[in-house]
Amino acid sequence: MSENSELSNAASTLKVTGRVALCISYNGNQYFGWQSQKDDLPTVQKFVEKAISLVANEQIQVVCAGRTDKSVHSSYQVVHFETSAKRDLRSWVFGCNANLPKDISVFWAGEVDEDFHARFSASSRRYNYAIYNHPVRPSNFSTELTWCHHPLDARAMHEAAQYLVGKHDFTSFRAVGCQSKSPIRSLEFVNVRRYGNIVLLDIKGNAFLHHMVRNIAGVLMAIGSGKEQVSWCSDVLKARDRTQASVTASPYGLFLTQVDYPERFNIPKSSGAPSLIQAMINASSGQDVLNKELWDEEIWKIAYLDK
């Protein structure tokens, strides 16, 4: 047996207790968001806490890195919880998965320091928003993609998105019921690229307001469809008025894909995107393509011949 195998086996049998962190992925289509609801609606948190409690043989409550809305997905959610139970890493991962629905999966577990906090220790979060840009609605992955039947200019969307990079007051992009005390957020990057019939929004920042990514997507899609000019994104941002922006985009296609922490906590790095999006990018060789290069031109002609 190799030294690496021995180390791996030793790590998997190490008893973990105290403050424990998990990395989780899920398809949010069947759930009313992450957070548990008083009326007992199905939520991701509810099922995760139930599964962990069964493994720990005690009641467990978790804290997550970022709460996702109804029908929003995650390829990289981080949670922590306190427990007196002593379980090895394999038990935390596979034991939880044995008690979880098939659309929720734990893929990493580890013991963390007492000062680790899944939400407050995070330095940044990243989201991907995938848009299926085609005249005909998708039959496959219909809940993992937002459908837009108007032709979108991804390059115009990307140009407009650059107004949002940096530290700003994002009042125009927050939900009316947002409970955050401050609308100030810092965005590290906002990129928009086309991969065939898929337009992908990739956005990273220190934190996000309620519906912020979906409201940004709504504004960029209005610009991409030609309804608004590129500079309109700047106008909306400066207005600090939610009524000046476009509609909130659909939750379908939105993924929480990355949460960053200081190195000392030893939380594994995210790959940055769910496997579906990675495969899509790899299939396009990571190259941005012209708007019509990979489109089904005939169906676009049929759909918009008389418009």
Please provide a written account of the structure:
- There is one protein chain.
- With 307 residues, the chain is α+β, with helices and mostly antiparallel strands.
- The protein folds into two domains: 3-111, Alpha-Beta Plaits; 124-283, Alpha-Beta Plaits (2-Layer Sandwich).
- It is built from eight helices and ten strands.
- Strands 1, 2, 3, 4, 5, 6, 7, 8, 9 and 10 form a ten-stranded mixed beta sheet that branches.
- A hairpin with an 8-residue loop joins β2 (63-64) and β3 (73-88).
- The longest helix has 13 residues, at 44-56.
- The protein is globular and about 60 Å long.
- The termini are far apart.
- 40% of the residues are buried.
- Mean pLDDT is 87; it is low at 1-8 and 289-295.
Short summary:
The protein has helices at residues 3-13, 44-56, 89-98, 154-161, 212-224, 232-239, 275-283, 297-304; strands at residues 15-26, 63-64, 73-88, 104-111, 124-133, 146-148, 166-169, 184-195, 198-205, 254-260.
Work out the radius of gyration. 21 Å
Looking at the overall shape, the CATH architecture of the largest domain is: 2-Layer Sandwich
Number of helices: 8
What are the low-pLDDT stretches, counting only 5+ consecutive residues below 50? Answer: 1-8, 289-295
Which CATH class of the largest domain applies here?
Alpha Beta
- Helix-strand makeup class: alpha+beta
Number of strands: 10
> How does the overall form come out from the CA principal axes?
globular
Mean pLDDT equals 87
Could you say how many structural domains there are in total?
2
**Helical proportion, percent range:** 25-40%
Distance between termini? Answer: 68 Å
Determine the strand fraction and express it as a percent band: 25-35%
CATH topology of the largest domain: Alpha-Beta Plaits
**CATH-assigned homologous superfamily of the largest domain:** Pseudouridine synthase I, catalytic domain, C-terminal subdomain
